[in-house]
Amino acid sequence: MHVCCFVFDLQLSETYGPVMTVYLGPQRAVFLVGYEAVKEALVDRAEDFTGRGPVPFLIRATKGYGLVVSNGERWRQLRRFTLTTLRDFGMGRKGMEEWIQEESQHLVNRINSTNATPFDPTFFLSCSASNVICCMVFGQRFSYDDKDFLDLLLPVCFETHDSHFYFPSQLYNIFPRLMEWLPGRQHKVFANIEKLRQFTMTKIQEHQDTLDISSPRDYIDCFLTRLNQEKDIPTTEFHYDNLVSTVLNLYQAGTESSSSTIRYALNLLIKYPKIQGRQATGNLLEQIWHS
Predict the structure, then answer these.
(1) Whole-angstrom distance, CA of residue 145 vs CA of residue 131
(2) pTM
(3) 52-57, long-range: CB within 8 Å, 24+ apart, which pairs?
(4) pLDDT band at 270 (very low <50, low <70, confident <90, very high)
(5) How does it sit in the membrane (predicted)?
(6) CB–CB of 134/140 below 8 Å?
């Protein structure tokens, strides 16, 4: 059984206890309330709760493949490979720090181009976060003015932060078959994800045409090398569908979560101006606040 953990109303737990079952349409969800209940499930009995519950919206977006929606042996193989590969390419090390510093300079230059006028930082921060991910996954960064890059980034950047997006996505998770027939923004989101999938497939083909197994350039090269090594193993999870969906997982999840964290940090700096390092930073954050 898969368990979903949420911050739930403590008053309900006083009546029904620390473990409550709620039916979201036909789907059963189990809520854990309080430190002891969560610790017992996720720490003391972690092995029993490693699985991920079915999320129809993500399954539809990834066609059921990739790291995010997987469980069991597929999840173990892809997770181990992905962590090892990304660390080899600098995640959490000096190499990645240099990429981030380089991308930060591009971000500062773009912010300076606003000429001290109020602006929304969402787009710039998403471009920066996305480019750091792209360096590890695609082996390249993109210009903030690259049309193809913008066509792919803008839906990830804005739709995932739009309150009108969350409602249909949650409805899709509860009533997936019904939402396939009803009109709504979920169809636009899926169309944009398909564009991103096509872009990813094009990049994978470019990597395949220029692959040098003795000198991997990025995550895609490493996955293709492993795919070729295990192509005759029936139980392997290193195949084309998992490659496409895992790259999508890394791109979308990495871009949204990183840029959201930075935006939250900016809000904190604005709220507590005394911790801002320099007056120039304070002026910049004031511009963001008034946008």
Answers:
(1) 13
(2) 0.78
(3) 52/2, 53/2, 53/3, 53/4, 54/2, 55/173, 56/172, 56/173, 56/176, 57/169, 57/172, 57/173, 57/176, 57/186
(4) confident
(5) Peripheral membrane protein
(6) yes
